[in-house]
Structure formats: C-alpha cells, structure tokens
Amino acid sequence: MNKCHFLSAAMLITVCLALISGCTTFPELGVTRMREPEIAFPDLPTALEGYRIVFVSDIHFKNNFSRDRLNRLVTSINALESDCIILGGDHTLGYAEIAEFAVAAGKLRAKEGVYAVLGNHDFFNDRWKSIATLRRQGIVVLDETLVTTPRGLTIAGINDFTDVFPVMGRMHDILEKDSFTILVSHNPDFAEKTDLSYFDLVLSGHTHGGQITFFGYAPVLPSEYGQRYRTGTVYKDWVPVTISNGAGFGGRLLRFRFGAPSDFLLVTLRSTVPTSNR
Hints:
By secondary structure, this protein is α/β, with parallel strands linked by helices. It has helices at residues 3-24, 67-78, 98-105, 120-124, 127-136, 168-174; strands at 34-35, 38-40, 52-56, 84-87, 114-116, 140-141, 145-148, 154-157, 181-184, 201-204, 232-236, 239-243, 264-270.
C-alpha cells in the first residue's frame, strides 16, 4: 500500500470511528440533542406567533433506553418551558414497560399540556393499556380525537395506519378548516394517504432517521416512499411534514445508530421565516 492509499484508509477509519462514537456511545444523544425547526405560516393566527412545541417520538423505553436516560430526557424537555409537548408514539419496548414509562412521562410539564399518540409498537404492546395508563398520569392521548389549547392551537392525533387505518371521515366532521391544526401521525407516510387540506402542519416519527445511514442514505427504511420521509421537513400539497429521528432505538438486534443520531424537536411557529434562516 503506497503512502497516499495508507493516508486515505486512515482518514476513512478515523471518520467511521467518529461517526460510531458520536451516534452509538454518548449517553446524551437522544436526551439533550435537539433540533429547532422554525416554520413559517403566512396565515398563522397572531395568538400563535412564536408558539413552541416539543415533539419527541420513538423513545422505545427499555430497548437500550434506561430509566435514567428517560429521566434525563424529561428534565431536558421540561427545562425548555415550551407551550406544549407531544409524544409521537412507540413509547416502550413492550407491555411490561408501559406503567413505568407512564410514571416518568407523567413528570413532563408544559404551559398548555402534554399530548400523545400511539405508534405501531404501542398497538402490538396493548393499545388500551397504553392509552389508559398514560391518561392516568395526566397525558392527553389523542385516539383519533383532537384538542384545542388555550391559545388556539388545534392538535389532531390519529392511530397508526399500519395497524388500524384511521377513520378520517370522523376527524373531518369535527375539524374546522379555519382553525390552525397540527396533525400528529406516528408514520409520515400517512401524509401521502389523506387529504391534508384540513391541516397546517404534520408531525411524525417512525423512520428513526434511518437509524443506520451512509452519507444520508438509509439502506433500510420503514416507508413506502424511499428516502422522502427519512428526516427533516418536506412538503406535501404545500403542507410541511416534519419528521423526528426519534429519541431511542428500534429493533431487537441492531439497537444502535450510525449516521442518524437520536433527537427530539423544538418546533416554533412563525408568520414569517426568521432572517437567520433565509
């Protein structure tokens, strides 16, 4: 091996080690790593200017995600003093962890409440126990229902369509088109399968940012639409769909991340795009 090839190989190994350490070993990832999208809506009601939403999804509690780590995540979120908090589904590893997760999540605090939807794993783990246990801890579970916060934000939560396809006709009956409404759907693919004209923003998780990616490409992604809904904000019919990488780890074998670090979101609603983001 000549000197040039040796240096190239050394650089590649160094980069790989940095990525592995940054995405698999640091306990703070998924606890304090936060993305802060500021999204502009020309018709945003004045009362919602600057409204701050914490969105945390795919915790998968006890799937290589300890109680200590969950407690630190709760502390990090509470320190933000956001307007509301939304849990985006796939809360636990299994049935046995639901009660302990609910006790910890019940310590989340926001000015206008804490809300949750269920993900596909929550259906497998016992959807009714998940709903009842979270509600006993003061968390409003949106089971194909909606709520309007004191400042006028409407939050609509639907079931995960991979298990029980949401009955959107009922949702449309109770939605007011002139209200500013967020649709919370665990799986972002649902944006392709419903009429988004009733909604101003979609919040989703499920894809884990790919969990294992190479230069932004995920070889395995639980989506019907390729890499489109892997992470970040994309637009469908002019409606922003914002996807979190999720806080935890999916799967029973590859319970680590590579190139797709854990996160939670602090979404700020604006009437115009901030100058710094233009």
